[in-house]
Design a protein that fits this description.
single chain; 326 residues; alpha/beta; 2 domains; 7-stranded mixed β-sheet; 7 strands; 47% helix; 10% strand; elongated
Length: 326
């Protein structure tokens, strides 16, 4: 017969076994797992430090390269736009910090900046489409006709382009006698403001993109409105370039929309790194390319087709042959 002491010993043995199991499980058995985890964490820390160092080196090299270009920017663009007049048009939300640097590089390239046209938020307001349509119809030159499928923004772009641009260098610097009050009409209605004298028409247009993609339910229509403007400006003179700053991985916003529209991308150029010295030089080169009748999508973005336009070939001067020496 099993006595009471046996039960006591059995119970004590069970609890002792549990205690030993808990101790072993939390120390001996978990030790390999802890060691493995610490090894992985150490590897991740080492990898992260390596990546941070590589990023720092890349940023340092990039900054040094851009500084090198910035110091020589006037020489890099010298004479590229001699004889051209450029009007700067700013989309609503354009980065004003780019304004002066870009106008300076245009001047260094030999261009005359006729003035600046800054569009207001009202210009792209969806509720303003009917008003914009009526205003464009009223302000257009008598000789201008709109295509049947033209939107309000297509019409406004055509009228504004006629007021600030001309494809004829002989008419550059002169106001369009057929549309002397077009800019004033848009300005009076709060759709834009002007600085300088953009009414004395330019031959090329530089359209500054919004600093960030438009947001909200009307974002697509607002972006489409500025794409229409880019197309209209291109048709009003010798060409147009859209410039701005876009993260390299982004495919949204005005520049992306220009590049995604195959018809517009064939005629309107874009530059997505206008904040960099190299990008500013490319803006000048892209404008020069427009004069030649070509277009391209340039910069560092994933949807850019090249970093810069193909350099214009220079015909070497003939060298005398050996038979003509004296």
């Amino acid at each position: 017969m099993i006595d009471f002491r046996y039960h006591i010993v059995s119970i004590v043995a069970i609890f002792l076994a549990l205690a030993i199991g808990i101790v072993l499980g939390s120390t001996v058995l978990n030790a390999p797992l802890v060691a493995s985890t610490e090894k992985v964490a150490a590897g991740l820390r080492q990898s992260n430090a390596k990546l941070l160092n590589e990023l720092s080196v890349a940023q340092t090299r990039g900054d040094a390269g851009d500084t090198f270009i910035a110091d020589r920017l006037p020489q890099l663009v010298q004479g590229a736009l001699t004889g051209e007049r450029v009007v700067v048009v700013e989309a609503p939300g354009a980065d004003t910090k780019l304004r002066e640097p870009l106008q300076q590089v245009l001047a260094a390239a030999g261009a005359v900046v006729s003035g600046r046209v800054t569009l207001t938020e009202k210009f792209i307001g969806a509720e303003q489409a009917a008003t914009l349509d009526q205003l464009a119809t009223t302000a257009k030159p008598a000789s201008m006709t709109f295509p049947a499928a033209a939107t309000a923004y297509d019409k406004a772009a055509a009228v504004l382009a006629a007021a600030v641009l001309t494809p004829d260098k002989a008419q550059a610097g002169k106001a369009d006698p057929a549309a002397p009050d077009a800019l004033a009409a848009f300005e009076k209605d709060g759709l834009l403001s002007v600085e300088g004298d953009p009414g004395k028409r330019a031959t090329l247009a530089l359209l500054m993109a919004p600093a960030a993609a438009y947001e909200g339910k009307d974002a697509d229509s607002q972006t489409a409105a500025i794409v229409s403007l880019a197309s209209g400006l291109d048709g009003g003179g010798e060409g147009a370039v859209v410039a701005g700053v876009v993260p390299t991985s982004a495919t949204a916003g005005l520049i992306a929309a220009v590049r995604a529209d195959s018809d517009v991308a064939l005629k309107v150029s874009s530059v997505d790194n206008a904040d960099m010295a190299s990008g500013k030089a490319v803006v000048v080169y892209a404008l020069r390319e427009q004069v030649a009748g070509d277009a391209g999508q340039y910069g560092l973005g994933s949807d850019a087709t090249a970093l810069e336009p193909t350099p214009t070939a220079v015909t070497p001067s003939p060298t005398p042959d050996g038979s003509s020496g004296g």
